[in-house]
Structures are given as C-alpha cells and as structure tokens.
Specification:
Chain C: Belongs to the ubiquitin-conjugating enzyme family. The complex is a heterotrimer of chains A (869), B (152) and C (155). By secondary structure, chain B is α+β, with helices and mostly antiparallel strands. Chain B is 30% helix and 15% strand. The relative contact order of chain C is 0.16. The two termini of chain C are 29 Å apart. In chain C, strands 1-2-3-4 form a 4-stranded antiparallel beta sheet. Chain C has 4 helices and 4 strands, in the order αββββααα. The chains are: A alpha+beta (869), B alpha+beta (152), C alpha+beta (155). Chains in contact: A-B, A-C, B-C. At the B-C interface, helix 1 and helix 2 of B face strand 2 and strand 3 of C.
C-alpha cells in the first residue's frame, strides 16, 4: 500500500489508502489481519491461504497468521475502511487515478458472496458502488436496486431492503432445514461406529486371549525343554555313578580275592610248619618266597601303592546369570496403536520358510537333541532357525491391523534379544551385562559367521569330554580362564583380536571352505585345536549347557550382533575395526597400470566385457566376455590364460552373460543373462550345474545380472528385472529373496551388481535409483548411500561394486564414467577416471574386482577392454 | 531522454526475436532435469552449462526392458530453436540405434514423427518419454541393434 | 487481452505512466504477461554506463506467485549465473503478493549496486569476489563495457 509520505487530503492519496495492495482495487469486503494490515477477502486473502498448514502470510509484513476455522472470512471486517468507502465513495471515485473505462463496468464491482452451507447465491453489489450510483448518500438496496428503507442483513452483512431481506431470510430458513436433514442423514454413521466399536472390543478381547494362549504355549515348550535337559543331566549323572561304582567293585573283588588267598596261605603254611613234619628244604624255601611275595602285596596296601580308585568329585554347576536374566526378561508385550512395521517384513517372507523342524525337535530324545544342537546348521539354513521360529511365533500372536479404526494392538514379542538387536540403541540392563561379558566372543564369531557353528561344536565336544571324566569344578574353570588370559588374545584390544582372526581366516583358505561345505570329518581335521580366544569362554557353563532353546538363542545373539554391529550398539565396531586409512592407496590410483583386451572375438579379445572377478585361489582375472558369450581368464598381469563357454542354451553355453564371481573353492558362478539362469563351473572351467529359469516366482530369474558369494558359499543374485536379490545355496537350491520395485529403502529399480563385505554385509548397486544399498546377509536393510548427480559421493547408474578386505567399497559410477571409493559406512573416500577411450578413461563401466595386491580390475564395456588400477 | 531513446531502440529490436515463454520454460525444464524423471529412465541437461540461449541439450534414454534396447544407454542431442516450444525441437541420436523414424545414417529423428505429438505445452521430458515408448512398440522392440555403445 | 487480470493491467499502465528512473518495462505486443525490460547500471557500481536487458514473465498464478525474471545480457555478478538466473529472495520464498513488477525491478537494480557474494548463485564469481574484490569489480566493469554496451550496436 503506497501510503502518502506526507499527510495529504488529495483524493489520489485517499484513493490509494482505500486500495488493496494485492488486487490494486478498492477494497471489497476488507478484512483486517492480526498484524493490522487490511486486504480484500476475495480473491486476495482467499488466494493467500496455505491450505495444508491453514496459515496465511501477510503480504505486507510477511507475518504468518493462523486461519480461523471459518476461513479467511472470519477475520474481522475493517469497519473503518468500510465506513470510509461508504462515505467518500462518490467523491473519490470521480477522481480515481487509474480511472480506466473498464473500472466502471459493473462486472468488476459486483462480487459473488461465497455460498454458505446451502446452495443459494446472493448477489450483492458493493456498497461503495451503490453509493456511487446514488451519488447523494441515499443508499439503494443492493439486490433490487430500489431505494427503500434498508437495513443491514445480519447474515451476509449487506445493505438490503426489507422485502429482499424477507426473501433472503426464507432462503436461509430452507437452508437451515436442509442442513438439519443432512445432519439426520449423517446420524447413522455414529451408530455404525458404535456397532463397529463393540465388534472391535470383542475382537480385541479374543486377541488378548489368543496372546495369552500363545504365551503359555511358548512357556510350556520352554518348560518341556528345561525338563528334557534336566532328564539328560540326571541320566548323565547315573551313567557316571554306574561307571565309578563298577571301578570300585573291581577293586573290591581283587582285594577280597587277595585277602582270601593270603589268609589261606597263612593257614596252610602255619599248619604244615606246626605239624613238625619234616619239610624239605625246597618246600621251605618256596614257602619263604611266597611269604615275601605276600608281604610285598601287603606292603603295597600299606604304602598306598595299591589302593582303591579315587572317588571322583561330582557336582552340578547350575549358575547362570545369563539364563536367569533371560528368564526374567523373557518375552515382551508390544503395545502399539498401529501395525508393527518390523514384524511385517519377516512375516511376509514366512510362508516359504515355515518348516516342521520344531515339531521334530520335540520328538527327539534329550541326547539326540543335544547332539543336534552341536551339529552345525546345514548349509541352507545358517543359524537363523531361532529367528524363524520367533518370527513364526510373533506372526502368530501379532494382532492384525483392523481397518481404519485405531485400535490398541497387543503384541507378544518372544525374544527380547531379537528385539534388542532391532533397536540396538535401547539395550536393557541384564542384556547389556551379558553382552559386555561376551563381547569379544561374539565379535570373533560374528566376524566369521560361518564358523560359529563349528566353534559351538568344539565347545560342546570339549565340554562333553570333560563331563565324562568329571564335570569341571569351579577351580578348573578359573584355571582355564587364567590360563587363557595369560595367552595373547585377551590382553589385546578387541580390534586386534578381530584382526588376528580375520587374518587367520584368510590364511586358512581351503580348510575353511571345506568346513563351509558342512563336512564334519574334514572340519575336524582342519581344526584340531580350538582357538585360544574362544577357549577362554568355552568352559563358561552358563549358556551352553541348558538345552536347545537357550544355546541357540546365544547363537542368534551373535549372528544378529554381527549384522547390526555397524549401526547399533557396537557402533564403535566400524570405526575401530575398519581403520580410516586404507592399506590400498586409493587416493594414489587413477593412472591405468595395465590395459588389455580389444574389440574382437579371438582369444584374448573382448566384446563388451561386463562382469569381472578375481579368483581368491590363484589371483586370476575372470571376465564375462558378454557379446562373445564366453568367459576368458587372464593372469593378474593381463596375460591370456584360457577361455570357456560359447553361445547357446545348453549346459556350459551362454547368452549374453553378465555377472561373474569366483568362490573360495575356485568355483566360477556366472549369471547367464538371456537364459535367465546361473551356471556354476569348477576351477578348470568344467560345467557343474545350472539353476533358475525365466519367471518371477521364488527361484526364478528375469535377466539376472550381478552375482556374489559370501564366505559360507551362498550365492547372491541380482534378479534385475524382478527388482530383487535372490539367495541360493551353492547347490542351486533357493534360500530366500529380498527387495521389490521402488525407491524406498530396501526397494530396487534394476539392481545390477552385488558384493559381500568381509564383515558380512551385502552391498547392492541399485542402479536406476543411483545409490548403493547395504543389507545384512538376511536381507535386512541397514543403510544406503549415494544420490543422483556428479558431485563427490553422488552417482549416476552405478554398476560394478567390489569390497576390499578392509571394507572399502569400490563403485563403478558408470553414468559419470569414474570409479568412486567409499568407506564401509558409505562415506566418500576418493575417486578417479573420466570419459574417453584412453587409458584411465572409461566408456560404459561395468564390473569391478579387486586383486589380492589391491589392484582394481575394471571392465570397460564400450572400450572393450579391462584396465587395472 | 537519451536513455529512453536507446531503450526504445533496444526494445523494438528485441520484440521479434523469440517466442516469449521460451526461456522460462526451458529454465523450468532445466530445473526439472536435475531431478530427472520419476523412474530415472530418461535424463536431460544443457550440452553447455554456459549457453544462455538454452539451445543445445544432451539427453539420455535407458532402453526399455524386454526389448532389444534393454539397458542400453542412448545419448541424444536435442536442439531447441528460437521458436521453441511452438516449434518442436530437432532431435538426433548420438548413440547408434536401429529404430523406425530414425535416420540410419545420421541418427536424426524424423521431424514428422515429433510433430505428430508435439504441442506448445510439450517438453523435452515428454519428447524423451515418447521416443522411449516407440522403442517398446511392436515392430521396434525386436529390431536388431548395432553394437552397444557405438556412435554416429 | 482477454483473461488478463485487472491487477496486471493496472500495473502495466502505472509502469508506463510513472516510469522508474533507470528502468523501462514494456509489455510484449503478443503476450501481455511478458515484459521486455532494460535496467541501467546504477551509478557508482561496476555496472555504471551499461544497459542490461532482462525478460520478465508473469505466470498464471501472479500475483500469488512471483514473476520470473532473467538477465539476457551477460553480466559478471555473484548473484546472477551464466544463464541469467537471479538469486533474489523476493523472487523465491520471500515473494509477497503486495510486491509489484516495479518493486521487483527496483530490487534487481539494488542488487546490482550491492552484490552479495555470501549468498551466491555462481560460485566462481562469488569466490572471485570474496578473494579479490578489486579484481572482480574490474572484471565486472570490463564485462559491462564488452556486453552491456556492445549489445546496442550488435543487434
């Protein structure tokens, strides 16, 4: 509003004061805002309302005001302005500064009053205009335009004559009646809601009853387990007593026999001597010899050389703070007013995983249960059975969300450990204690999840050996602890321990692989002695000897901790284990050390190489020579070694293969893209098996692209067109899948390549979402990084991905034609490369691999070559 | 007065230069291009960041699935003339492609096939979406494609 | 001019009737929402003596949303990028319907007098401005000579 700088009564200035700053017109229904600025109601103020927040920003001073329930019309009228307009209208109007001819057209002056609840339209002319037409201050009705006695309508604030007012009031009356009818029609909604509420109440009560039943079921099962364990322990004691008694009995018999024979000898010797019968010298000497013998025997008894076997000590060690705290905190009721998101995903996955092993368990005798627990889980089911059962159970007891209405939902969560691992930041007291107690242990096992079962078995075996010869006394346990803490590992910082174990894993090579294949004999051969660090805990009696459920929970605890480690309570893990400076000097990379391959189909030539892989066994480079439908193998210096495969659909033949991976056994896993399958070859390139066919069901593939293996031998496949990751056993049987189409966390659009990090996280290049997503081995989303763009850390259509042994992530940023290196938590570290066909330049990056010496192998599809950095 | 004179000279010279909404529409399209299309299958941006005439654009189409174009990255050059968006832009494939309506030797998209759908409300985004639709159409989706990545 | 809101008509007429010194805005003869604008470089600024062409467009929602303005003449300024886009709060989130074409153009003129390298649109220019203001101003003066004067003769 252009207020005059000096007080002036010139009509121009007055006119400007009566003009809305938004429409530059004379005010129409001027409303005054709390900030004292005035604007027309319609369309100016109405157009300013921010519908979403129900606020309005003053165009003059930018103050935000809350819009009353009735809309901006509920702001008070600026009565001063209205009165001023009414009074001075005529005079001012003639001298209007912007007196355009259009301004006098009634169409601009008459406004429609916003219809109220009903449907009538009450057209009224602006009082100012009316005044202008009259010109002498006598007002005319704004409806019929006749000059009569008029008054202000209390409904719509217009000046009207009595007649029009009557008509108007009749309309208002109809309107009110119509509204009442409308209200009546709406009433049943409330009763409906009441009925629904009643039904919900019944449902709710039933639900609670079900939850109660579920609780007792679970507890009964655990009580049964405990009972079984009790029986097993007692039987063990019986066996022990029997054997010890047998030993004593043997001694007793021997002693009795000796006693009898010696006394009879004494008797007969005495008799023959006392009869004063002549005895030959020989007989006497013989008698003396026998005497000496018996004397010796008795001497042995006297000296304690011959004595009954020591009675072994036996006592039951039942101390278990872990178990006690577990029982005290076991089970949890989750009460929310909405469905639990964390429970949805697993329960959706469930139908394919429900199995009857739980039932089998209960049929087994305690002994076989014990041994079963000590057998490592089979390859296809790595340690997640407790998770599964818990998920089953939680699905069974979670109350399904009811439509629309908010209802309190009761949820019985079976395992607080599971819960704690989901919400790692919130760890309850007893658990925390327990966790700290065994932190190094769980980390050690966590780092190499594949070994956890074998460690468990060793522990079990040792324990059993012990218990045959006598259950270890507390003293023993203490000794063991001291001994092991004297040995290196316990004194070292945790990071170093982990480092040690990791190195051990690296050097063990073949042994580990055999172990992964689940062959107990081989494994025993390769692990003659348990690791000291592990041994220090192996005799802790607490969690390991209390039957199936508890021990397995311990296993789950470990595996889950390992998964959630970088995010959750053991967040320091990432920082400490994965040092921030890489051994591999990524920031000095950028010039190509070696480039090989050129377009063509002769040996050593490449046409559109896609996936590349480095064999962990012999450090050879495997290249998916996609458009030549073959695999080519080069040495780590780029010298051609061999090739296998050709175009076709039979075994060992390819159709535009893409991803390639080599596992610890030297097996080559290849995504045979247009054949919608994965093929596996042995280290010599001999076909072993193929699995998968076109489709979108579990186990079916649709243009599979990247493949990767974890250190247990599981195969991860980017099922690109199905926008998901599938996991298979090394024999090709389907295990699980995760992901769906979309751009939310955990969803994919064309996932291309995949890699598993040394700490068992799965990194997926979610290509068309321009990001890398990170999951646990079980498909739980952990975090993601990258967004579309060409700045540092941004990416466009990321393709190949590889992870070094320190966890640094190398990403082929194909849209930007560069390689980016990230820390394991997704922070940008460095980058190199640009578009072009020279060395060090890229055109269409695809696969990435890392050689043992840290060189990065890059497949450059459109330059038809492979470069090493 | 001298000022006013020069100004009037300037303004008369200006008046007929281009369609009045051209620049602002293209600036809006440039902003939209930073975010890309919702499904990330197409993208567009200025060929030269300093080009204040906003004439030449580099665009990318990712070939639609279940076609021979699948997953290939097709680069295009789009030229928005002075009468854009009243006149449709000129479009040329940089990446070699075999597609009806695209000149085999030059990669130029037949202007008639663009005019067929172009209106003054169209945008580069719609242009790219339309071309991608052509790729998925019967008769196009199975065309044998030149080697991936080759250019004109 | 059918459908053209009265506010735009009023603003146009007032712009023509009471021009602001150093600024002209003329509606396009075919499109009344499009204005050809010339802003004279403010005195005692590196842009002094230059005449800068701008285009201004009133979108459908005007005055509820801001007009779109762009420099057509090349200008060396930390808040104006190579494409002529202007970083000015009242053209974005600080727009208010009480503002008018006149006030917008005055603000742009003021922006020429007082560049704000702390809220840059063109980072290179802003860095130049912050590290060596003298040389940046010299550069701006040179560009003014080169582009804001030559344009009269070249066209």
């Amino acid at each position: 509003m252009a207020a005059a700088p000096e007080v002036s009564l010139s009509s121009e200035h007055v006119q400007r004061l009566l003009q809305c700053a938004v429409c530059l017109e004379a005010f129409n229904q001027p409303k005054i805002l709390p900030c004292q600025h005035t604007f027309c109601l319609s369309p100016c103020l109405e157009g300013l309302v921010e519908v979403r927040t129900r606020t309005l920003r003053c165009p003059e001073c930018r103050a935000d005001h809350f819009v009353p329930r009735g809309g901006p019309g509920s702001f008070p009228n600026n009565l001063t302005i209205i009165a001023f307009l009414e009074l001075s209208a005529g005079a001012v109007r003639r001298e209007a500064v912007f007196g355009l001819p259009e301004a006098r057209e009634p169409s601009h002056q008459s406004r429609e009053v916003a219809p109220a609840a009903g449907g009538y339209h009450f057209v009224a002319e602006d009082p100012m205009a009316a005044g202008g037409d009259g010109g002498n201050g006598v007002f005319s009705c704004s409806v019929c335009r006749e000059e009569r006695s008029i008054s202000r309508c209390s409904h719509c604030d217009q000046l009207v004559c009595d007649e029009c007012r009557r008509d108007h009031m009749t309309q208002v009356r109809y309107d009110v009646m119509r509204t009442i009818a409308q209200i009546r029609r709406g009433l049943p909604q409330i009763t409906d809601q009441l009925i629904i509420l009643g039904r919900k109440e019944v449902q709710f009560q039933n639900r609670c009853e079900e939850v109660k039943v579920d609780i007792s079921d679970v507890f009964e099962k655990h009580v049964r387990d405990l009972k079984a364990r009790e029986r097993a322990l007692q039987e063990e004691v019986d066996v022990f007593v029997g054997r010890e008694l047998r030993g004593l009995g043997v001694f007793q018999e021997t002693a009795q026999v000796e006693n009898a024979s010696i006394s009879s000898f004494c008797d007969s010797a005495e008799a023959s001597l006392s009869l004063s019968r002549p005895i030959t010298e020989g007989d006497l000497m013989e008698m003396k010899r026998q005497c000496m013998e018996h004397l010796e025997t008795i001497q042995c008894y006297e000296d304690g050389i011959t004595r009954p076997p020591t009675i072994k000590q036996i006592q039951a060690s039942m101390e278990s703070p872990f178990l006690t705290s577990t029982i005290n905190n076991f089970g949890d009721l989750i009460i929310t007013s909405r469905p639990l998101p964390s429970l949805e995903t697993p329960s959706q996955r469930l139908p394919s995983r429900i199995d009857d092993r739980d039932l089998q368990d209960q049929d087994l005798s305690p002994e076989s249960r014990l041994s079963r627990a000590s057998v490592p889980p089979q390859l296809g089911r790595p340690m997640n059975r407790t998770v599964e059962t818990i998920h089953q159970a939680s699905r069974a007891v979670s109350i399904s969300p009811t439509q629309g209405r908010r209802e309190r939902q009761v949820n019985f969560e079976l395992d607080q450990i599971l819960e704690a691992s989901r919400q790692p930041s919130h760890v309850r007291g007893p658990n925390r204690w327990d966790r700290q107690e065994r932190r190094s242990d769980s980390r050690l096992t966590g780092l190499e999840a594949g070994r956890a079962p074998s460690i468990m078995r060793q522990i079990r075996e040792r324990t059993r050996h012990r218990s045959l010869g006598g259950i270890p006394t507390t003293r023993d346990v203490l000794d063991e602890r001291e001994e092991s803490s004297d040995t290196d590992n316990d004194l070292l910082p945790i990071e170093l321990q982990t480092e040690l174990v990791r190195r051990r894993v690296e050097t063990e090579g073949l042994g580990d692989d055999n172990e992964r294949m689940g062959s107990p004999q081989l494994e025993a051969a390769f692990h003659p002695t348990p690791q000291p660090a592990i041994r220090s805990y192996s005799f802790l009696p607490e969690p390991l000897q209390y039957g199936n459920a508890v021990t397995e929970t311990a296993v789950v605890l470990r595996s889950l901790e390992e998964e959630t480690g970088p995010q959750g309570s053991s967040n320091s893990n990432t920082a400490s284990v994965y040092v921030s400076t890489p051994r591999n000097r990524y920031n000095q990379k950028g010039s190509s050390m070696c480039q090989f391959g050129q377009r063509g189909n002769d040996l050593g030539e490449l046409t559109c190489p896609r996936g590349v892989a480095a064999s962990p066994m012999d450090d050879k480079i495997y290249i998916a020579d996609s458009n030549n439908h073959r695999v080519q193998v080069f040495s780590n210096r780029g010298v051609f070694v061999k090739t296998f495969g050709r175009h076709g659909q039979d075994e060992g033949e390819f159709d535009y293969l893409a991803g390639i991976a080599v596992n610890g056994l030297g097996q080559v896993i290849i995504a045979d893209r247009y054949n919608h399958r994965v093929q596996i070859f042995d280290r010599n390139g001999v076909f072993q098996r193929a699995f998968g066919s076109e489709g979108c069901d579990p186990g079916h593939l649709n243009y599979p692209w990247g493949v990767a293996c974890d250190n247990m031998g599981f195969i991860y496949v980017c099922d690109k067109e199905n926008n998901r990751i599938q996991v298979f056993q090394s024999n090709g049987s389907y295990v699980r899948m995760f992901g769906s189409q979309g751009s939310l966390p955990g969803q994919f659009v064309n996932p291309h390549y995949i890699a598993v990090s040394p700490d068992n996280k799965v990194y997926v290049s979610d290509s068309s979402n321009h990001r890398i997503q990170v999951f646990s081995l079980y498909g739980d989303f952990l975090f993601s990084f990258g967004s579309c763009g060409n700045l540092r850390g941004q990416m466009k259509f990321p393709r190949g991905i590889a992870i070094d042994h320190q966890g640094f992530v190398v990403v082929a940023d194909s849209g930007n034609n560069r390689i980016q290196i990230f820390r394991s938590d997704g922070r940008f570290y460095s980058m190199f490369g640009s578009w072009g066909c020279q060395r060090g330049h890229f055109k269409g990056l695809e696969g990435i691999a890392i050689l043992a010496d840290g060189k990065i192998v890059v497949g450059d599809k459109e330059n038809h070559c492979v470069q090493l950095f | 007065m001298n000022f006013l004179y020069i100004v009037s000279l300037l303004l008369t010279l200006n008046n007929s230069i281009h369609a009045t909404s051209r620049h602002f529409q293209l600036l809006d399209e440039l902003n939209a291009g930073i975010n890309g299309a919702d499904d990330r299958t197409i993208s567009w941006g200025l060929a030269d960041d300093d080009d204040n005439t906003l004439t030449n654009w580099n665009c990318v189409i990712i070939g639609p699935p279940r076609t021979n174009f699948e997953n290939r990255i097709y680069q295009l050059r789009v030229r928005c003339g002075e009468n854009y968006p009243l006149d449709p832009p000129e479009v040329r494939f940089v990446t070699r492609i075999s597609l009806h309506g695209v000149n085999e030797d030059s990669g130029v998209v037949d202007p008639r096939s663009i005019e067929a759908f172009w209106t003054k409300h169209s945008s580069i985004k719609q242009l790219l979406q339309n071309i991608r639709k052509w790729m998925a159409q019967k008769g196009n989706s199975n065309l044998a494609q030149p080697p991936e990545g080759s250019t004109y | 001019m059918a459908g053209l809101p009265r506010r735009i008509i009023k603003e146009t007429q007032r712009l023509m009737a009471e021009p602001v010194s150093g600024i002209t805005a003329v509606p396009d003869e075919h499109n009344s929402r499009y204005f050809h604008v010339v802003v004279a470089g403010p005195s005692q600024s590196p842009y002094e003596g230059g005449l800068f062409k701008l285009e201004l467009f009133l979108p459908e929602e005007y005055p509820m949303s801001a007009p779109k303005v762009r420099f057509m003449t090349k200008i060396y300024h930390p808040n104006i990028d190579k494409l002529g886009r202007i970083c000015l709060d009242i053209l974005k989130d600080k727009w208010s319907p009480a503002l008018q074409i006149r006030t917008v153009l005055l603000s742009i003129q003021a922006l020429l007098s007082a560049p704000n390298p702390d809220d840059p649109l063109d980072n290179n220019v802003a860095d130049h401005w912050k590290t060596n203001e003298k040389s940046a101003i010299e550069q701006a003066r040179q560009w003014t000579q080169q582009y804001a004067k030559a344009s009269i003769n070249n066209h």
